[in-house]
Specification:
The structure holds two protein chains of two kinds. Chain A is built from twelve helices and twelve strands. In chain A, helix 7 runs parallel beside helix 8. The longest helix of chain A is centred in the middle third of the chain and has 17 residues. By secondary structure, chain B is an all-alpha fold. Chain B folds into two domains: 122 residues, no CATH class; 181 residues, MetI-like fold (Orthogonal Bundle). Chain B is built from 13 helices and no strands. The longest helix of chain B is centred in the last third of the chain and has 38 residues. Classes of the chains: A alpha/beta, B mainly alpha. At the A-B interface, helix 2, helix 4 and helix 7 of A face helix 10 and helix 11 of B.
Chain lengths: 332, 322
C-alpha cells in the first residue's frame, strides 16, 4: 500500500434531519483507496455504507440529507469544496457507481444503448452514432449476447443478471478511476452473483480501476476485496486486510458477523447464529460504544465513553474502535 | 397494434347503442315537448290540426316505437331532419363540428402548455411560498366556472378589435391568423381548468419520479440537471398526465357548448344548446352520438400515445422477454 491513495475520505459526517431529530447516518468516517485496490465496506442495513458512498459523489438527497463535515479528496481535490459543476463532470467519468437493484436503477422508458451511450456522449464528447457504437461494444464486452440487436431493447426486456451487466457497462464505459459498487449482487440470483462479481473483478483489474464494494455478504468480501472496513452505526469499527479480518477479527461485532455465516458443519441450534439485539437508533447516540448493548464482552467503560480508533499496525493501517484493544487495555 | 385498434373500434357499437338509448329517453323527460315549445302559449289550434301537428312532430306513437324507428333510420345513415328548421341534421352538425374541435384542440394545447411547465417548476422548487401560490392558482383554475371566466374575458377585451368573435366568425381556412386570435380567449377559458389539473398531476408525478433510483443513476452518470429532468424524469412522469389529459378532452368538448354561447361562436355546442331549448330531439340525439364517438376515439388515441411513450405497454401481446 505504498502507492499514493487515489481517494482519501477524512472525518466524513453525513446527517439527515427527520421529524424526530438529527440522524447521523455517517459519523466521522475516514479511509484511503489506492489505485487498483478493492476495498470492501461491510455492515448491516442502516450502518451508513451506502450513504458514505453517495456522499463521496455528493448524491445524498438534500434536504433532508446534509454533509456536515469532512473531506473527500480525489487526486488531491476536495470534492466537498468543489463546485457542483466540477463534481458533476467527475461523476461517471472518474468515479462511477453501480447500484443494488438494476431494474429500478435503469430508466424503464429509455433504450439500454441510449442509457449507456449518454455518459459516453457527455464525457468523451462523441456524437450520437459513435457513442452508440461504443455502447454496443461495451455490451459485447460485458457479455450480452446478440448485442447489436438488443441495443434497442428496453430494460424490462432483459433478465436481472443482464440488467446488472448493463449497469456495469454503463459504469465502466468511460474507464473510471474508481468504481463504487453498492450491493451489486444483492438483488440477483445466487447463480448469477458469481458471474457478476467475476465480471467486475476482471474488468477492474484490466484498467487498474479501484473498487469500493459495499456489501453485507462476507462471502463476497472474501472473494473480492483486498482491504475491508466494517461499519456499525455510522462508524468504521474495524479496518483490516481481508485475510487478517477473517482469521483474526478484533472487534466483537466483526466476530459476530463472521459467526453469523451459516455453516454446514454445525448442526442443531448452533447452525444459525445471529447477533442478539438490533442496531441502535441513530438519533442522539449517547457518548458510548454503540455496539455495547449487543456486545458479549461489554465492560463498564463501554457504556461511559466512545472508544477511540486504535491503530494496530501502521504498515497495513489495521485499526479497531473498541475498548478491548486500546493501548491502555492492551498493556493492562 | 392494428388488431387492437380494430377491437377498440368495434367496441364503439355497444357504446353508441347504449348512448342512443339513454339520450333518446332522457331528452323526452325534459318537461315540455317539441310541439309545446313550437306552439307557445298564445296559439290556438283545432283538435284536427293538433293531430296533424303531433304526426309531424313525431308525438303520435309510443316512445318505444319511435325509438326503434329512429334507430332503424340511423342504421341506414339517416339522422333525420330538424323539427324546427326542417333541414337534414347531419350536414348541419358536420359543418359546425370543425369549430368545436378546433376550440377543444386549442384548449387542450393551452392546458398542456401552461400545466406541464408549471408542474415541473413547482416540483423542483423547494420554496414554500411559491408552492403555496402555485397551489392557490391551481385551485382557482379548477374552481372558477368557465362561463364566468369567459364573461370576464368578454368584458375585458370587448373594446379590443379582433379578440372577441362576436358574430363575425372567420374560418381557419379563410384567415388562419385572425381565426386563431379569435379562438384564443374562448379556448383559454375552457382550457384553464384543465391546465390546473395537469399542473397538479405533473407536479405530483414529477415529485414521485424524482425519488426513483434511475434518477440517481442518471445523476451518477454526470448528466446535467436539465437532461436528468427532461429526458429521465419527465418522460416517466408524463404518463399519468397523458391519461388525465386524454380523459378530460371529452369534457373539454362539453365545455365548448357553454363557451360557444358566451362568445357567440357558431359551433356544434351552440347548435346543441338551441336544440335543447327547442326540444329539437333529432338534433340533440345526433349531437350526443357524435360526441360519444369522439369520446371513444380520443380515449383510443390516448392509449396509443401511452403505448408509444411507455415501451412496457404493448397493446398487442407481442412483448419480447429474454
Amino acid at each position: 500500500m505504498s502507492e499514493e491513495s487515489i481517494l482519501r475520505v477524512e472525518g466524513l459526517v453525513t446527517q439527515f434531519s427527520t421529524d424526530r431529530g438529527l440522524v447521523k447516518a455517517v459519523d466521522g468516517i475516514s479511509f484511503d483507496l489506492h489505485r487498483g485496490e478493492t476495498l470492501g465496506i461491510v455492515g448491516e442495513s442502516g450502518s451508513g455504507k451506502s450513504v458514505t458512498n453517495l456522499s463521496i459523489l455528493r448524491l445524498v438527497q438534500s434536504p433532508p440529507g446534509n454533509i456536515a463535515a469532512g473531506k473527500v479528496l480525489f487526486q488531491g481535490q476536495d470534492l466537498l469544496q468543489a463546485s457542483e459543476e466540477e463534481v458533476r463532470l467527475l461523476r461517471g467519468k472518474n468515479i462511477s457507481m453501480i447500484f443494488q437493484d438494476p431494474l429500478t436503477s435503469l430508466n424503464p422508458v429509455l433504450k439500454v444503448s441510449m442509457q449507456i451511450a449518454e455518459a459516453i456522449q457527455l464525457h468523451h464528447g462523441l456524437g450520437r452514432k459513435p457513442a452508440k457504437a461504443k455502447a454496443v461494444e461495451m455490451m459485447k464486452l460485458i457479455g450480452i449476447p446478440d448485442a447489436e440487436r438488443r441495443a434497442d431493447d428496453y430494460p424490462h426486456q432483459f433478465s436481472g443478471g443482464m440488467r446488472q451487466r448493463i449497469m456495469i457497462a454503463m459504469a465502466l464505459s468511460c474507464n473510471p478511476d474508481i468504481l463504487i459498487a453498492d450491493e451489486p449482487t444483492t438483488a440477483l440470483d445466487v447463480t448469477i452473483q458469481a458471474q457478476i462479481l467475476e465480471l467486475i473483478k476482471s474488468l477492474s483489474a484490466k484498467d487498474k480501476t479501484a473498487v469500493i464494494l459495499i456489501t453485507h455478504d462476507l462471502g463476497v468480501v472474501a472473494g473480492m476485496c483486498d482491504t475491508v472496513c466494517v461499519m456499525y452505526a455510522g462508524r468504521i469499527v474495524e479496518r483490516a486486510p481481508v485475510d487478517e479480518l477473517f482469521y483474526d477479527p478484533k472487534h466483537p461485532y466483526t466476530r459476530g458477523l463472521l459467526d453469523s455465516i451459516p455453516s454446514v458443519d454445525l448442526s442443531g441450534p448452533d447452525r444459525l447464529y445471529s447477533i442478539p439485539g438490533a442496531p441502535p437508533n441513530l438519533i442522539d447516540l449517547p457518548d458510548a460504544c454503540p455496539f455495547a448493548p449487543r456486545c458479549s464482552r461489554v465492560m463498564e467503560v463501554c457504556t461511559k465513553a466512545t472508544p477511540p480508533e486504535t491503530v494496530l499496525d501502521t504498515a497495513t493501517s489495521r485499526s479497531v474502535r473498541c475498548w478491548l484493544h486500546t493501548k491502555e487495555n492492551q498493556n493492562a | 397494434m392494428g388488431k387492437y385498434i380494430a377491437t377498440r373500434l368495434l367496441s364503439l357499437i355497444p357504446v353508441l347503442f347504449g348512448v342512443s338509448l339513454i339520450v333518446f329517453f332522457l331528452v323526452r323527460l325534459i318537461p315540455g315537448s317539441a310541439l309545446e315549445m313550437y306552439m307557445g302559449t298564445q296559439v290556438e289550434a283545432t283538435p284536427e290540426q293538433m293531430i296533424e301537428l303531433q304526426r309531424i312532430f313525431g308525438e303520435d306513437k309510443p316512445v318505444v316505437v319511435l325509438y326503434t324507428e329512429w334507430l332503424g333510420r340511423i342504421l341506414k345513415g339517416d339522422f333525420g331532419h330538424s323539427l324546427r328548421t326542417g333541414r337534414a341534421v347531419l350536414p348541419d352538425i358536420l359543418s359546425r363540428l370543425p369549430l368545436s374541435l378546433e376550440l377543444t384542440v386549442i384548449a387542450l394545447f393551452l392546458a398542456l402548455l401552461i400545466g406541464i411547465p408549471q408542474g415541473i417548476l413547482s416540483s423542483l422548487r423547494k420554496n414554500p411560498v411559491s408552492d403555496v401560490l402555485n397551489r392557490i392558482a391551481g385551485l382557482l383554475g379548477l374552481s372558477l366556472p368557465q362561463f364566468w371566466l369567459a364573461s370576464l374575458m368578454v368584458l375585458a377585451f370587448s373594446n379590443t378589435q379582433g379578440w372577441i368573435p362576436m358574430g363575425n366568425y372567420i374560418k381557419f381556412t379563410d384567415d388562419p391568423l385572425r381565426n386563431l386570435r379569435m379562438m384564443l380567449l374562448p379556448s383559454l377559458s375552457i382550457g384553464i381548468g384543465l391546465s390546473a389539473v395537469i399542473m397538479r398531476y405533473t407536479r405530483n408525478s414529477m415529485l414521485e419520479v424524482l425519488q426513483m433510483d434511475y434518477i440517481r443513476t442518471a445523476k451518477a452518470k454526470g448528466l446535467a440537471k436539465r437532461i436528468v429532468i427532461i429526458r429521465h424524469a419527465l418522460k416517466n412522469a408524463i404518463l399519468p398526465v397523458i391519461t388525465v389529459a386524454g380523459f378530460n378532452t371529452g369534457y373539454l368538448l362539453g365545455g365548448a357548448i357553454v363557451i360557444e354561447e358566451v362568445f357567440a361562436l357558431p359551433g356544434m355546442g351552440r347548435l346543441a344548446l338551441y336544440a335543447i331549448y327547442q326540444r329539437d330531439y333529432p338534433v340533440i340525439q345526433a349531437i350526443v352520438l357524435v360526441i360519444a364517438t369522439l369520446f371513444v376515439l380520443v380515449n383510443l388515441l390516448t392509449d396509443i400515445i401511452y403505448s408509444l411513450v411507455d415501451p412496457r405497454i404493448r397493446l398487442d401481446n407481442g412483448a419480447r422477454h429474454s
